[in-house]
């Protein structure tokens, strides 16, 4: 039995499902496109229990308004070299969640080769939330994504909470570019209580407006980032509040990257109440010289993506002795206010450029 509904008792067969009320629960226990389509069309509550998705197939769930989707057991995907995504969910007014002990297992080690997106095997993105509107995503455990774990794209009014991405195995097995959550072309997004153990950005906001990121714990990885901004089809980041975060043993703590030679803007961004712990390279790094092609700095900033109205409030903690506490290389920045900053333990940068002159900020 691949598909069943529960109406107090279990009913068998698709026809029975169609005749039953839309308030029923459909449980799908094997990957079958038709069963999944039936479940989506007839049930407002869907449980995917222990699904194994075949290689090279996206688990595509274009949900009807009001659907509650629940992951149960272990969801896996077969190995295939492609860009994915492994899971793609679209919907309005939907709720997506996992129950205790479920796992979305990306089995990343099958793809990992230490090269991430820069060569070697072609690695699929794990989970895309595409065009999600007015929806909630919570209590999801994602493990070992082959590449980025989650993208929220072209979405509006989405809240996530209690999302746990654990890619720690990648530390020793060649995980790279295993971003936790990326947000782009999305507005009114709240990410609460996210925990990420990985080897790239913990959370990266690439474009969008009205974004709140609260209570994040990042371990390993590259820190809480905005960017890179510029060089894509939408290059605005505006009205962002990132608060109550802890970033541990990561390459960076707080990072903003804007793209060299590009246009766009980063406006009204606040990071507050952030604790850094044992950061490897940069406690705070704000750079306007990012080369989108090489994925590294050019050494010269350009001012086409100005960082305006940028507030840091109460950012404290430690950088390793070989790292740098604070580094800034930008052009055309205005209206910065940093207060309660105490990042120590690392070196002082030789040179910081482009800090607005009236801000009183010292590098
Ligand atoms: C995700 O699903 C939506 C809706 O079905 C579709 O429009 C979109 O192209 C899909 N994205 C990918 C990358 O498959
Ligand atoms: C996710 O995993 C963590 C750590 O293993 C566990 O504490 C938590 O209960 C899990 N959450 C769910 C919804 O399964
Ligand atoms: C992450 O997963 C690994 C195994 O894949 C496990 O050993 C480790 O305890 C997990 N981390 C947390 C914080 O649950
Ligand atoms: C989402 O954000 C946009 C742009 O900031 C705003 O115009 C819109 O009203 C917001 N939508 C909701 C539902 O709050
Ligand atoms: C700046 O962003 C914050 C969210 O961090 C928002 O509450 C505030 O209204 C924004 N300010 C302006 C002038 O839009
Ligand atoms: C950086 O700026 C210096 C001096 O303005 C210039 O000589 C050099 O060519 C620039 N480098 C790049 C990569 O644009
Ligand atoms: C500085 O930013 C403004 C927009 O705020 C833009 O019009 C201008 O071209 C930028 N200047 C440089 C040198 O990039
Ligand atoms: C900054 O933090 C360091 C290490 O925690 C501490 O020793 C120092 O007193 C703090 N400085 C200020 C000005 O609070």
From TrEMBL:
EC number: 3.2.1.15
Signal peptide: 1-23
Top-level lineage group: Eukaryota
Record bears the keyword Coiled coil: no
Any Gene Ontology biological process: pectin catabolic process
Active-site positions on this chain: 222
Main EC class the enzyme belongs to: hydrolase
Pfam families: Glyco_hydro_28
Reactions this protein catalyses: (1,4-alpha-D-galacturonosyl)n+m + H2O = (1,4-alpha-D-galacturonosyl)n + (1,4-alpha-D-galacturonosyl)m
GO cellular component terms attached to this protein's record: extracellular region
A Gene Ontology molecular function term of the record: polygalacturonase activity
PROSITE patterns xref list: POLYGALACTURONASE (PS00502)
Database matches in InterPro entries: Glyco_hydro_28, Glycosyl_hydrlase_28, PbH1, Pectin_lyas_fold, Pectin_lyase_fold/virulence
Keywords from the named record: Cell wall biogenesis/degradation, Disulfide bond, Glycosidase, Hydrolase, Repeat, Signal
Family: Belongs to the glycosyl hydrolase 28 family.
Name recorded for this polypeptide: endo-polygalacturonase
Origin species: Mesosa myops
